[in-house]
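Hey, I was hoping to borrow your eyes for a little while. I'm sending you its amino acid sequence along with the backbone structure tokens. Take your time with it, there's no hurry, and the full record follows here.
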Amino acid sequence: NRSSDLVFGLGALQVLYCPIEVREAIPEKSQKVKQLGVWCEREEAGVKGAQLIAGLESGRYVCRDIGGSDPERMSAPHVANYVLRNFARTAVQVKVYSDPAVLTRCYPLLSAVNRCAAGIERHAARVIELEYVGEGPTDQTLLLVGKGVTYDTGGADIKAGGIMAGMHRDKCGAAAVAGFFHVLSTLKPKRIKVIGFLGMVRNSVGADCYVADEIITSRAGVRVRVGNTDAEGRMVMADLLCHAKEKALNETNPQMMTIATLTGHAVRAVGPHYSVIMDNGPAAKKEIALKVQKAGDLMGDPFEISTIRREDYDFVAGRSEYEDVLQANNQPSSSTARGHQFPAAFLIRVSGLDQHDIHTETQIPYSHIDIAGSSGPFPGVPTGAPVAALTKHFLEGR
């Protein structure tokens, strides 16, 4: 059937990907084959299928370029330059924020993570905002926030014992958002508006790094006590999520999402090949997680579904009158009960999305996607998850 043809085509193209470092250093190796044939019963269907496969793969290519490249080739400034070049003369509008004063004022939690790297020009943070508006009246607005930690040392809670290798892949969430926008620029779906935020930050260690016990007030006015500097991903995304929430309140039929290689617990819970998706109340009412899972099953981009429970909100509640929220405990997520669910509760609480839950008049559907397992093996090439599933669910028929 059509879905299996797409999956076969995408599988072939996955192994034909050539890393950007190789393409730039050894151009003659950049093309592994000269032509790829697709068999089909009807020529018209084959042409349409090939166009869809090419559009999807172009997005996954961007995702792999950003997500898989080393921490210097795809440092935050280089990611910004790559994105600007990639979307020049397309329907995707790009804004890049780099001024330290702006980042501190607008994204204080992200700026705390950036503090140590900010003094090194080639490592300094970038916030990248993307926007696509399809032709025709908009009936759906999708707002995406991607974690783009270009390298994660763990910060002051350093990743010791040989577990730091591979942490350049902690930017695959932001890479997936950029990849999805490339699909938008290629397929040009109608009647949909998509807004994206990429939080590109290096979690460095040094004299100016943020530390546990600091209390930082988020963009939404929530006082956050840092529990572990190696839980930087939720810090990077929370203020961006708040910014996206502010936009969602004025948009048509909004759906918000965060995408991140966030927790080792997600890998322990569901294995190394699956994304985990979980909804807030308004998104659960619309069965977003279930629908995305079904789309992923058809596209070879599989998901498991988790649930955000009251215990997750209890876990991140402040332990004293000093703070409203605790960012993390001081144990690895993989050895913490509900280690991939409570970070979603943190994001909801710290961004102010808890003020737009199912019991309010201004409900905003929100789903969190943890791709720590599905983003791909290291050593190896990123998979491009969850670009295919999101394309299937949100763009089919447009």
In short: The mean pLDDT is 96. The chain is about 40% helix and 15% strand. The longest strand covers residues 140-152. The two ends are 20 Å apart (CA to CA).
